[in-house]
Specification:
Pfam families: UDPGT. This is UDP-glucuronosyltransferase. InterPro entries: UDP-glycosyltransferase, UDP_glucos_trans. Keywords: Glycosyltransferase, Membrane, Transferase, Transmembrane, Transmembrane helix. The protein is an alpha/beta fold. The protein folds into 4 domains: about 70 residues, no CATH class; about 240 residues, Glycogen Phosphorylase B (Rossmann fold); about 190 residues, Rossmann fold (3-Layer(aba) Sandwich); about 70 residues. About 45% of the residues lie in helices and about 15% in strands. A 7-stranded parallel sheet has the order 7-6-5-8-9-10-11, with helices on both faces. The protein starts with a strand and ends with a helix.
C-alpha cells in the first residue's frame, strides 16, 4: 500500500472512507500547510512526533496543488434586487438632490427606485431616469406667498425673537396644510404599487414617516441638517446645535442667549397660529387612522438615520448605532473642457460661463444663496460693491459672479445697477464654477449642498447665514478653518467688510491647508457609497435593525433603573426583620420596657419623697406615712 510521509511539528490526520480531501494540504517540501486526510472519522494527534507515516488503500494521490478541487465560491455580499421608495414631499431641494445620488448608486447595484416628490421636482427625477409621483406644489399660489413671507422674515429680521416668531408663524400652518394631500398621495401610491422593501424619507416628510411606522414598512430617514433639534428627542446630546431655530450651542451660549431661547420657545407654544396648525395636523393624522400627536423622533428610534455630515465639521457627540454620519454626499465635479471639441459638449449657457472663467486669470469670486434665500436690496448692493472692491485689488483680469434666485427677484430686488467687474445671473451650474481653477472664493448662505460642493472643490467660503441650520453651519465652518462668516445679526454688512474677508480668504494659505484636510476627512467618511452600504445592510435584515438598538433602549424601565431589584431587596430585608429579627428582639424589648417602667416608677417615688421631705416632717416620718399608705 502506498504511504504519505510528512515532516511536521504538529499535524492532525483525519481519515474517512477511501476518499481523499485536500483542504490546503501539502507536504513539507511544498507549502508547509496542515494536512487533513479523512477515513472512518478517526483522529490521530501526532504532536509528539516530527514525522508521520499513514498507510492508505491503493489510491492515486494527486500531489500537484494546481489540479486540486477548488472551493465553491461564496455568493456576493449584497441583497437581491429590492424596491426602494424615496419620499421628499416638502420644498427643500437639498433632500431631493441627495436622494437622487443615493438612488443612482442603488440602481447601479441592481435595485429598483421610485420617488414621491413635490411637483416641481418631478421632471428633475424623471430626467435622472426614475419614475416619480408628484405631491401638491407648495411653491405656488398662497403657499408661495407664505414661504416668501416666512423666508423674508428670516432673511431680514434682525430681532431674534421676532424672526423666530414670524418665521414659525408662516411655516407651521403651511406644513399642516400640505400634510393631508401629501398623505393621500402616499397612501394611493402604496395601494397601487404595494409596499416597498424600504422607504427613505426626508426629515420633513412626516406623512411618509407616519405611513411607514403604522404600515410596518422598513424606514430610513435622511437628515440633511446637523444632528440635534428633532433628534434630541432620543439622543443624549449635551452640546447639540438647535438646528431648527438658530445656530447657538450650549457651550458657546451666554446666559442671555439661553434665556432668550427658552422665552422664544414659550412664545411659540402660546402662538395661536402654531396651535391651530398643530391641531389641524393632529386631526388629519386621526382621520387617516394614525396617532394624532406623533413625535417624529419617536418614530425614528428603530430606523436607520443617515446624516450627510462629516465629523470634521459637525460637533462631536455620542451617537446611537442607528445614526450614521456618512460625510458630504456630493456628485463628482465636472471635467473641464481642454479644447473646442470638449467645450461643445456643454450647454450654451455653460460655454459662456466657461469662457468668462477662462478669461479671469487673476481670479473670480462666485456668490450664490440657494433657492430659498431672499436678499434685501441693501445686502445685494453691499455684496456687489464688496466683490467689486476685491476684484479691483487683484488685477485687470479678475471678476465676480452673483446668482440671484427667483424668490429674491419676485420680492422686487433691483439687479440692474452693478459694476463692470460683476456679472448677475439666474440659475447657474454651481459645480462648474467651483471646479474651475480661477475661482478663488465662494460667498454662500451655508446650505448643506453648497458647503459640501465647496469642500469637494477646495474653495474657501465666506458664509452669509440666514435661517435654519445656516448660522450653526457658518460657525462650524469657521472653527474648522475653511471659511469666514458674515452674520447680519451680529454685525453690519458693508462693502469694506466683504472685501476685507474676501482678501483674507484668498491670501491666507491656511485656508487651502484646512480645506485639503477636510476634503480628505470627508472622503474617508464614505459619502454616497457608505450610505448605500448602510441601506443594503438594512435590506439584508429586511429592515429589522433591532440588533443595533442599544440595550438600554430595548430594556424596560425597571431593567434600566434596577428599581425592581432595589424593591426586592427592601422587601426581603423587611421579611427578614419580621420573621427572624422581630421574634428574637420582641422579648428583649418587652423586658427592656418593663425594666424601664420600674426604674421610672422608682425615680418618681424617690422624687416624691424628696419633695415631700422639704415641705413637712422628717424623712423617717414621711417614709412611715408612705409605707402605711
Amino acid at each position: 500500500m502506498p504511504s504519505l510521509t510528512m515532516a511536521r511539528e504538529k499535524a492532525t490526520i483525519l481519515v474517512e472512507s477511501h476518499d481523499l480531501y485536500y483542504g490546503g494540504c501539502s507536504s513539507s517540501s511544498d507549502h508547509g500547510a496542515n494536512c487533513a486526510i479523512r477515513k472512518n472519522a478517526t483522529a490521530f494527534d501526532s504532536s509528539s512526533s516530527s514525522e508521520i507515516v499513514v498507510d492508505l488503500p491503493a489510491t492515486t494521490i494527486e500531489t500537484d496543488p494546481a489540479v486540486w478541487p477548488k472551493s465553491k465560491p461564496l455568493p456576493p455580499l449584497k441583497p437581491s434586487a429590492k424596491k426602494v421608495l424615496f419620499v421628499a414631499h416638502f420644498f427643500v431641494s437639498t433632500d431631493v438632490n441627495h436622494m437622487l445620488l443615493m438612488a443612482e448608486e442603488l440602481r447601479d447595484r441592481g435595485h429598483e427606485c421610485h420617488f414621491i416628490v413635490m411637483e416641481p421636482y418631478v421632471k428633475r427625477v424623471e430626467k435622472a431616469g426614475f419614475t416619480a409621483t408628484g405631491t401638491p406644489n407648495v411653491l405656488q399660489g398662497a403657499g408661495l406667498d407664505t414661504i416668501q413671507r416666512a423666508f423674508s422674515y428670516a432673511s431680514h429680521e434682525t430681532s431674534w425673537f421676532t424672526y423666530v416668531y414670524k418665521y414659525i408663524y408662516g411655516i407651521a400652518p403651511l406644513a399642516a396644510e400640505y400634510y393631508e394631500p401629501s398623505m393621500t398621495i402616499v397612501e394611493q401610491y402604496l395601494a397601487k404599487h404595494g409596499k416597498p422593501d424600504l422607504m427613505v424619507a426626508s426629515k420633513a416628510s412626516e406623512c411618509a414617516i407616519d405611513v411607514a411606522w403604522h404600515e410596518g414598512i422598513p424606514l430610513s430617514v435622511l437628515f440633511t441638517m446637523p444632528l440635534g433639534g428633532m433628534l434630541n428627542a432620543y439622543e443624549d446630546v449635551v452640546a447639540a446645535p438647535d438646528a431648527n431655530l438658530w445656530g447657538g450651542v450650549k457651550e458657546q451660549s451666554s446666559l442671555y442667549m439661553r434665556l432668550r431661547k427658552k422665552m422664544v420657545r414659550s412664545a411659540m407654544l402660546i402662538n395661536p397660529v402654531v396651535l391651530v396648525g398643530s391641531m389641524k395636523l393632529a386631526w388629519d393624522r386621526y382621520n387617516h387612522g394614525y396617532y394624532p400627536f406623533a413625535i417624529p423622533g419617536q418614530y425614528w428610534k428603530e430606523s436607520l438615520i443617515i446624516s450627510p455630515w462629516s465629523m470634521g465639521i459637525d460637533l462631536a457627540r455620542p451617537l446611537r448605532p442607528l445614526t450614521q454620519l456618512v460625510g458630504f454626499m456630493t456628485p463628482p465635479l465636472p471635467e473641464l473642457p481642454h479644447d473646442d471639441a470638449s467645450l461643445a459638449k456643454f450647454s450654451t449657457e455653460d460655454q459662456e460661463h466657461l469662457r468668462f472663467l477662462n478669461s479671469k486669470t487673476d481670479g473670480v469670486v462666485f456668490c450664490a444663496f440657494g433657492s430659498l434665500a431672499v436678499l434685501t436690496q441693501e445686502w445685494f448692493d453691499e455684496l456687489v460693491a464688496g466683490m467689486d472692491l476685491w476684484a479691483r485689488t487683484q488685477g485687470p483680469n479678475s471678476g465676480a459672479v452673483i446668482a440671484v434666485n427667483d424668490l429674491s427677484l419676485k420680492s422686487g430686488l433691483n439687479v440692474s445697477k452693478v459694476p463692470d467687474t460683476v456679472q448677475v445671473t439666474g440659475w447657474i451650474n454651481q459645480k462648474l464654477f467651483l471646479a474651475h481653477p480661477h475661482t478663488q472664493a465662494f460667498i454662500t448662505h451655508g446650505g448643506l449642498g453648497s458647503l459640501g460642493e465647496s469642500i469637494e472643490a477646495r474653495v474657501p467660503m465666506l458664509v452669509f447665514p440666514l435661517f435654519f441650520d445656516q448660522p450653526n453651519n457658518a460657525h462650524r465652518l469657521e472653527e474648522a478653518g475653511v471659511a469666514l462668516k458674515l452674520h447680519f445679526r451680529e454685525e453690519r454688512v458693508t462693502a469694506a467688510t466683504v472685501a476685507a474677508r474676501l482678501t483674507k480668504l484668498t491670501s491666507d494659505p491656511s485656508f487651502a491647508h484646512n480645506l485639503e484636510r477636510q476634503y480628505q476627512i470627508n472622503k474617508r467618511s464614505g459619502g454616497v457609497a457608505k450610505a448605500i452600504d448602510l441601506i443594503e445592510d438594512a435590506l439584508l435584515w429586511d429592515g429589522n435593525l433591532s440588533h443595533l438598538i442599544p440595550v438600554t433602549e430595548r430594556a424596560t424601565f425597571f431593567q434600566r433603573t434596577n428599581l425592581d431589584l432595589y424593591l426586592l431587596i427592601v422587601l426581603l430585608a423587611a421579611a427578614f426583620l419580621m420573621t427572624v429579627v422581630w421574634p428574637i428582639a420582641q422579648p428583649l424589648l418587652q423586658r427592656y420596657r418593663i425594666t424601664a417602667r420600674l426604674e421610672a416608677m422608682a425615680n418618681k417615688t424617690f422624687e416624691e419623697v424628696i419633695s415631700h421631705s422639704s415641705s413637712s416632717g422628717s424623712l423617717h416620718e414621711q417614709l412611715s406615712v408612705i409605707s402605711n399608705s
